[in-house]
Amino acid sequence: MEYILSERVKTLKPSAIREIFKYAADPSVVSLSAGNPAPEAFPVKQIAEISNKILTENPTAALQYSVTEGYPPLKKAIWEYMKKTYNIGTENDELLITSGAQQAMDLITKSTVNEGDTVICEAPSFIGSLNSFRSYNARLCGIPLENDGMNIECLENALKNEKNVRFIYIIANFQNPSGVTTSLQKRKKIYELAKKHNVMILEDNPYGELRIRGNDVPAFKSFDTDGIVAYVGSFSKVLSPGMRLGFTIAPKDIVQKMIVCKQGEDVHTNIWAQMVAEKFMTEYDFGAHLKHLRDIYRKKADFCMGLLDKYLVPNKISYQPIDGGLFIWCRLPDGADMVNFCRQAVQRKVCVVPGNAFLTDESEQCSCFRINFSTPTDEQLEKGIKILGELAKEVL
Amino acid sequence: MEYILSERVKTLKPSAIREIFKYAADPSVVSLSAGNPAPEAFPVKQIAEISNKILTENPTAALQYSVTEGYPPLKKAIWEYMKKTYNIGTENDELLITSGAQQAMDLITKSTVNEGDTVICEAPSFIGSLNSFRSYNARLCGIPLENDGMNIECLENALKNEKNVRFIYIIANFQNPSGVTTSLQKRKKIYELAKKHNVMILEDNPYGELRIRGNDVPAFKSFDTDGIVAYVGSFSKVLSPGMRLGFTIAPKDIVQKMIVCKQGEDVHTNIWAQMVAEKFMTEYDFGAHLKHLRDIYRKKADFCMGLLDKYLVPNKISYQPIDGGLFIWCRLPDGADMVNFCRQAVQRKVCVVPGNAFLTDESEQCSCFRINFSTPTDEQLEKGIKILGELAKEVL
Question: Considering only residues 164 to 183 of chain A, which have any Cβ-Cβ distance to chain B shorter than 8 Å?
Answer without folding.
Answer: 166
